[in-house]
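G., before I forget:
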Amino acid sequence: MKKLSLVFAVALASFVSLSAQAVDQREYHKDVIGKDCKTCHDQGLKNYPSDQACTQCHDVDELAEQTARSEEDKWQNPHNNLHYGKELPCIECHGEHELKKPMCSNCHTFKYDKHK
Amino acid sequence: MSKVNLLERRNFIKGMGAAAGAAGMAMAAPAMAVSQSANGVKWDKEVEIAIIGSGFAGLAAGIESMRLGAKDVHIFEKMSYFGGNSAINGGLFAAPGTPMQKKEGVNDSVERMVQDQLKAGRGIADEALLRHVAEHAVEALQMTFDAGSEYHPYLQQLGGHSVARTYQTTVSCGAGITQPLLKECRKLGVQTHNRAKFEGFLVNDEGKVEGFKIRQGYYFGEEDTGKLMHIKAKRGVLMATGGFAQNVNLRMAQDPTLTAEVGCTNAPGATGEGMYEMFRLGAIPVHLAHIQSGPWASPDEGGFGYVSNYSIYNFPHSMAVNCLTGERFMNEIADRKTRADAELACRDKQGNPLPPILITSYKDSKKHPNTKKVIKYNVGWKFDSVEELAKHFNVPLKPLKAQIKEYNQYVKSGNDAQFGKNMTKAKGKYIEAPFTVVRLWPKVHYCQGGVQVNTKAEVKDSFTGKPIAGLYAAGEVCGGVHGVSRLGSCSIPECMVMGMTAARTMMKA
Ligand SMILES: Cc1cc2nc3c(=O)[nH]c(=O)nc-3n(C[C@H](O)[C@H](O)[C@H](O)COP(=O)(O)OP(=O)(O)OC[C@H]3O[C@@H](n4cnc5c(N)ncnc54)[C@H](O)[C@@H]3O)c2cc1C
């Protein structure tokens, strides 16, 4: 736990410094999207990407498979969760230019070690 | 309504735009909705039935109206996801005269459920509404069966109920109902819109609600996102927007003790602007100051979390103990207010909160599916001995041991000499090692107050006492039904029955 929060703090610090350069982007997204902001910002550059923007490339069913948990914890699957099924818009938990907390942590202490 | 009133109403509505605009500057988020005259409005769209809010009330109304032959029903939800409080709710559903009660030989009736609720309501509950809901609760339960909801194969007896009459979904969550209902809605052809925030009514010269304004493409908390649309609703607008427990300003206006420091179990969308907009239109505010805190919540996790359902299930065969004294301090199945008040009184010598603990025998607690999770996620603990338990929470050992011994005698005799707890469900369930323990602290949970409705789900006007034409309300946004204290598991039947009722009324209108 301690270790995790340390990693988080470091990540946060690097984010803060990066945000000074206006646009922070994930490495693997740079490869695909490059600098074409409109790829994601389909509702105009000043607006959030639409709820469908990420699913142009990411398949919800595949994501749900990748993050599946054991039968006992199966509803903690963020991409197919108890409360909202597969319908939760990506930006509730993920931000390309900012770190977000997984929405589940509003009420639960589940761990999502790979969440970013 | 007399002509004079009408004119005043119209001027009032006209004036509101400007007034709210100015006030809006000083007001914190969420930005306030404003109603306007429908005169000369260019409608962007016309629908048959408009439902604002996608919880139990809205979804049940959607299904029922389609079943009654509606062709064009729309649900508008301001959040990006559907379900409101209902989707995070505990999935506990009370109804009298159910199939499972027949199977378990529980003697129950509409009258009995109403009497239990009237008692908790402490003389100010709305008997007609309670009776209407109890009479139709089994129909609502059936609607969930038909949609595919699944329930645990046992009944529970919750605090304040005189018999076991509560079903619970197998996932121990309201999502076990909202997910099937949402699917059923869509299957029947109800159109569902997310990121669609209600912003005010559009009212004609006779004071009838003709339509409303909705902000489509809205991002929660960013008030000027999205595009404002004017929508006409032929048969009416159903407000199913839920409570206001998340709006600290509004709840503190009613009860100054409910500051931001007090936790809250509600979904973020429970901010109340739909309700306040109905007040501006003339709806009658009832019982706004009666805001209920859940006595089964834990300070060790956010929101409702896992502990709430764990403790609701376990209270009947558990012992709640004040950590300072090692002694019991309440009837573990008294109604919510009694217990929440008793918990808040548990403090250390300096007066700081000292959350009490709930002690259960592992053999009995483990029957609830959450028990494993509570331990796994570190919001509850398992101990092999009293000594270990006492040390962990710094509880004085001797009085604790004595208390356990005393309590176990009540289990045996069936008579709780300390707090008069009904020991029926505790029969044979002695408090013995190994134990499971969680900490308790109340969280703001439910708003009993809201707009007044009649048994047809029509919203009453404060001056005429007559229904406001074209306007309906159902669910937690309505007030006065439960009085001082709502019994657990009585909101699902209320929301669903009143949603169905609103659909029936609108389809006749
Ligand atoms: C954690 C928790 C557990 C509970 N457990 C139980 C239980 O086990 N049994 C029981 O009987 N009761 C329980 N309750 C109470 C019960 O869940 C609620 O009273 C009930 O869900 C309310 O349903 P509703 O349809 O009235 O509103 P909600 O389900 O809250 O739905 C209202 C919807 O309207 C939306 N909305 C609000 N304003 C606007 C607007 N301006 N424009 C568009 N949309 C808007 C909201 O975002 C929300 O989605 C629980 C409550 C909570 C919070």
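Chain A has one domain: 23-106. The longest helix of chain A spans residues 2-19.

More on Monday.
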